[in-house]
Amino acid sequence: METGFVSSLGGTMAITSVGDPGAGLPHIVWGHGWNQSSAALLPMAESLARFAFSTLIDFPGFGRSPMPAGAWGTADYADAVAAWLESLPPGRRLWVGHSFGCRVGIQIAARHPGLVAGMVLIAAAGLPRRRTFLERLRLQGRRRALQIAKLIVPEGPKRDRLRRRFGSADYQAAAAMRPIFVKVVNEDLTATALKVDCPVLLIYGAEDNDTPPEMGMRYQKSIPGAKLVVLDGFDHLGILNRGRNQTVQHIQRFLTSLCS
């Protein structure tokens, strides 16, 4: 395993390599989820070392990578990763992403056709959640209450208490990344997904409440030829941990189908 840093389009990314790049194996590029790092995907990359050379990215602002120059959206992350990939020797590459990493992968495939030969999207985010009428009312009420409170409560401990009361866990934890978080969660990749023309495997956990399987069904309808697998018993993070072996098996089969 080797580690290093690459700079691309105003961002610096820590990268971790697993396997032998000179062995003639396919190249898997891994993109992690929000508030995570490449460490979350490293065990799966190590499990696939006999079948592929892997590069795991810490996106700018996550893990060992410094913050990007501005409030990046997923298109900015995708362009930075794409510019780096285009600088590498040609080869067959597979993108494997989890949650936020899927958002970036979809943007790469749509904005830079042909750069990746296929994608495995695990618990892919990026489409609006379908909520009941009562859920929408509650969400709108919380957002409105926070907006009003911000007008009268100055920045400081009292404002932090408001964030803890009304903001999501990811919003609270975002800290300096909050402008990026707000931009990312408000993106709708419905139209972007329609531009993806490489083979795609979608993997979701049946118990995932953050990116439920119905989101995968909508992605499957939007991405031509996409295949959907739903794994029973796993939630948003469990699919990477307790469900790791099953997830790796599906990635391996997909990789084999691409290279056959």
Report on the architecture of this protein.
This protein has helices spanning 42-47, 74-86, 100-111, 133-152, 157-166, 169-174, 178-185, 190-193, 213-222, 244-259; strands at residues 2-8, 11-18, 27-31, 53-58, 93-98, 118-122, 200-205, 227-231. The chain is an alpha/beta fold. It folds into two domains: 2-128 and 188-259, Alpha/Beta hydrolase fold, catalytic domain (Rossmann fold), CATH 3.40.50; 133-177. Helix 2 crosses helix 3 (100-111). The radius of gyration is 19 Å and the shape is globular.
* Beta-strand content estimate: 15-25%
Largest sheet: 8 strands, mixed
Quickly count the helices.
Answer: 10
Q: Strand pairing plus helix content: what structural class?
A: alpha/beta
Order of helices and strands: EEEHEHEHEHHHHHEHEH
